[in-house]
Amino acid sequence: MDIASFDKASSAGFLANMMARLFENRLAAAIRPLGLTPAQFMTLLELWAEEGQTQAALVARLAVEQATMAGTLGRMERDGLIERRPHPSDKRAQTLHLTERARALEALATEAAQAVNARALAGLTPEEQALFLDLMARVIGRLGK
Amino acid sequence: MDIASFDKASSAGFLANMMARLFENRLAAAIRPLGLTPAQFMTLLELWAEEGQTQAALVARLAVEQATMAGTLGRMERDGLIERRPHPSDKRAQTLHLTERARALEALATEAAQAVNARALAGLTPEEQALFLDLMARVIGRLGK
DNA sequence: TCATATTACATAGCATGCTATTTATATGGA
DNA sequence: TCCATATAAATAGCATGCTATGTAATATGA
Question: Quick check: A113 and B11 CB within 8 A?
C-alpha cells in the first residue's frame, strides 16, 4: 500500500523550494557585483517606484514579516543604500529615502534581474511562460488563504 | 521608455520566492506539532527511503550545500531524530540512522506535507497540476544550467 | 478625558541557506 | 613508498525569514 509514500520529485512544495533557491542564487550572483543582495533588491524595487514610504508600507507590499524588513533595512542603511527620516506627522514612524548610490543602481540591477528571469524561462514558449506565471499566482492566492 | 521597469507581480523569480515562502510556512505549521521543521522533514524523506546514507549522499540528493546539511543534521541529532555511526570503511565518513522517534513520524509527517500540497493545488484542474509540476521541473532544469 | 487597544518599530532567538576555510583521511600516480 | 590531489565533515560568518516580546506613540471609545 505504501501509505506514507512521498515522491519529492512530484511534490509541488519541494519543487517550489528548489526553484526559488535556484532563482535566489542566480540573482544573488548577478547583483553581487553591484553590492546588492536579493532582499535589498526587492526592497529597492519598492523604493525606486516610490520614495518616502514607511517600513510598514514595505512590509505590506512585499509580504514579509515586520522583523524581517527591519533587518533588511538595517543592513541597507549600514551599506549606504537608504536613509531614514522622521515621519512628518507620526513620531513612531520614519520615512525611507534612497541614497544617490541606490538611485544609480536601478538600471543595472533591474537588467540583471530580468536576465535571470529570461534565462529561467528560456525553455518555455511565450504561452507557457504566461501560463506559468498565472499558475504561480493562483497557487500563491490559494496558499495565502 | 521606462528602460528599468520591473513589475514584480510578473517576475518569475519574485513569484517563485513568494510561493516557496508560503509553502514553507504552511509546511512548518503543519509539522511543528510533530516537533519537525521543513529541512528536517526533507532530510527524513531521504532517510525513510534508505537508512545508513552518508552526509555527502544527502547533499547530492537534496541539492543543498554540505555546510547546510551539516547544520540540519546537527540539529536533528540534537533533537533525537538521527544517530551517527562510524562508516565501516571510510574513517572520514559517518552513516546516518533514524531513531525510533523519527521512524514513528513517517506517516503523520508525510500526510501533513501531502495535505499542504493538495491545498496549494486545489484551485487547479488535474491537467493544470501536472502541467505546473512539469513547468517547474523545466525551469529548475534550465536554472541548474 | 482617560483608560484601553492598536500601531510602528526594534530586538532577541532560532532555522535555513550560502561561501570560505580547516582538518582528517583516501587515492592515484611517479 | 611518497607526495599531490581529492573527498568527508566541521566550523565560522553572514543574509533572510520567522516567532515572540518590548517600547513608544497614536487612536478609540465609554
Answer: yes
Percent pLDDT > 90 in chain B is 92
Domain A8-114 CATH assignment equals 1.10.10.10? yes
**With respect to CATH, is domain B11-111 assigned 1.10.10.10?**
yes
Nearest beta carbon to residue A114 from set B6, B63, B132: B6
**Which member of A12, A15, A133 has the closest CB to residue B15?**
A133
- pLDDT at res. A75: 98
Give me the amino acid identity at A100.
E
Residue A84 is inside which H or E element, if any?
strand A82-86
pLDDT exceeds 70 at position B37: yes
Nearest residue to D21 (CA, C1')? A67
What distance in Å separates the CA atoms of residue B15 and residue B23, rounded to the nearest whole number? 12
- Please, what is the average pLDDT of chain B? 96
Buried b (16+ CB within 10 A) or exposed e, A70-105: eebbeebeeeebbebeeeeeeeeeebbebeeebeeb
- Whether A1 has a pLDDT exceeding 60, the answer reads no
| Measured distance CA(B28)–CA(B31) in Å, rounded | 5
Q: Is A139 on the interface with B (CB under 8 A)?
A: yes
Domains of chain B, by residue range, sit at 11-111
